[in-house]
Amino acid sequence: MKATQTKGQMGQVDFVGAGPGDPELLTLKALSAFQRAEVVLHDRLISPEVLQLAGQNARLVDVGKAGFGPSWKQGDINALLVDYALKGQRVVRLKSGDATLFGRLDEEIDALDAAGIPWTIVPGITAASAAVAGIGQSLTRRGRNSSVRFLTGHDMQGFADHDWAALARPGSVAAIYMGKKSARFIQGRLIMHGADRATPVTLVENASRPDQRVVATTLDQLPADLAAAGLGGPALTFYGLAPRDAAKAVTEFNKELA
């Protein structure tokens, strides 16, 4: 897809974090950029409720990617961003969660820099923050873990490798993005490096949304319980965290009201 410049003022691209799905979790700055946009290039996982907040005259373009499925090529997305901006359009590149985390942000910025197009980044609430709030826990805790790892379950080469020996140590906590399909691979690597099979693992599907689901399991039972749950939406996996009892009670109460 070739970018062609027209006469007139140069456009701009705002990289906006759309948050995990609840429209009330958008920042004011994100909402402002979103409503000024003439063109919105958005990910597949952006919730319909968030997309409804776009400016009345904004053109919405779905450039979503699906893990191991049909996807837009990154080069085509880059070219589309450049093309719209060179035509003088105010473009929002709307990314699920926070644009700086597993969002291929650098590749798109590099394309804009090469074309001399100005851009800004508007941070968003990442899925890990919303999901951990949904299970009543914190990502770090004195006496348990002073650090937390943000990992991806798969990358461009397939299932992603990590420092499994460090992750297998007692007290480790990790937030694993795109980890459903790689659950058995992750389980095997951790157990091979000495992780306790009883280590808690929690999966949160559709974090922050009305249809949020929580699956509490252990490293030993992870693949089996994941298969039994049949999660169809985006899910974040917490290694080393279990839902707090109070959060479980709230979840069950909300189910009864539904």
TrEMBL record:
First-level EC class: transferase
Annotated pathway:
Porphyrin-containing compound metabolism; siroheme biosynthesis; precorrin-2 from uroporphyrinogen III: step 1/1
Q: What does the entry give for GO biological process?
A: methylation; siroheme biosynthetic process
The record places domain Tetrapyrrole methylase at: 15-222
Domain of life the protein comes from: Bacteria
InterPro entries with a match to the protein in the record: 4pyrrol_Mease, 4pyrrol_Methylase_sf, 4pyrrole_Mease_sub1, 4pyrrole_Mease_sub2, CobA/CysG_C, Siro_Cobalamin_biosynth, Uropor_MeTrfase_CS
List, in alphabetical order, the Gene Ontology terms for molecular function in this entry: uroporphyrin-III C-methyltransferase activity
Keywords recorded for this protein, A-Z: Methyltransferase, Porphyrin biosynthesis, S-adenosyl-L-methionine, Transferase
Question: Which Pfam families does the entry link to?
Answer: TP_methylase
EC number assigned by the record: 2.1.1.107
Q: Which PANTHER family match?
A: S-ADENOSYL-L-METHIONINE-DEPENDENT UROPORPHYRINOGEN III METHYLTRANSFERASE, CHLOROPLASTIC, SIROHEME SYNTHASE-RELATED
The family this protein is said to belong to: Belongs to the precorrin methyltransferase family.
Protein name per the record? uroporphyrinogen-III C-methyltransferase
Q: Which organism is it from?
A: Ruegeria arenilitoris
